[in-house]
Amino acid sequence: MHRSLSIWTVTDGRIGIENQALGLAEAIARLTPADISVKRVTWPRWMRRTPSRFIPALPRLLATGGREILPPWPDLWIGNGRAAIPLSIAVRRWSDHRTFVIQLQDPLRPTRLFDLTIPPTHDPVRGPDVFPIIGAPHRVTAERLAEAYKAFARQLDPLPRPRIAVLIGGTAKAYGLGPERARQMAAEIADTVVTRGGSLMLTFSRRTPPEARAILTERLSGLPGLIWDETGPNPYFAFLAAADAVMVTEDSANMPAEAAATGAPVHLLKMDGGQSRRQRFHADLAARGVLQSLRPTDGGSTLPPLRRYDPLRETDRAASEVLHRMRLSGHIPAGLQS
What we know:
33% helix; 14 strands; 2 domains
């Protein structure tokens, strides 16, 4: 009898972290039949500052949105984020090593504790059980973008080209978006749209500070295009589908990686602060022809001639590697369709 691969994604439920795990799970499911189950982990308050090696192996203590971390264990476990790490380590023992365990990002633990670690190339972790990729796994596919565009086609079809998607992040560990930087960013975006004679498609993230959001909205609302006001569905994927170019804030790892999957040239918008590991990520994108710098003009700046590139398919590449390693290690269950 044939059966599907069972996959769990295990995170703390933060959308960016969960979407990375889901993106990899969905890419694997495109290669072989799979059933994906989403697990969201919330540690009890008294455990949150406890070093993971001292956390007792008591999965019943975990609140997971109604889905406990209990057997039967999956064929494939994809953990992401700090909350998942103790469980990713423990489930190999709980399953008698029958579950193939992946940990995304750099776990800051010995990688031998997992079957496979998939960090970004800009992190230093390396080894035989490590498979680095540029950026992070994501859920962007040509099919998803086409479907998203259909839902917003009435608003997007009339927009003049080039259509410039602007993806605004916000406060992060090493980055901020204060009022002065927001004003400078608004001028940079406006110069680009006006000089090219195109249109704006702007969306904010949950991390965008309210004052910065208000400044950008006020100063850019007169341009042709759309600014998402957080009412109705988020047009984020539709904007990526429609974009001739993408401007994205430098704080995010997810958004530039998702933009790089479209083939549209990407320009980074400067934030307050900075981080060397993020700069290494940007260097990787630049080496692939993804990033393009603004070109100075008499009145400000504009995008250079828009040069497309082969979209990055790092999530698909990682999915193929996962199945390859599962086959080599005997973790592909008997009767699995392929």
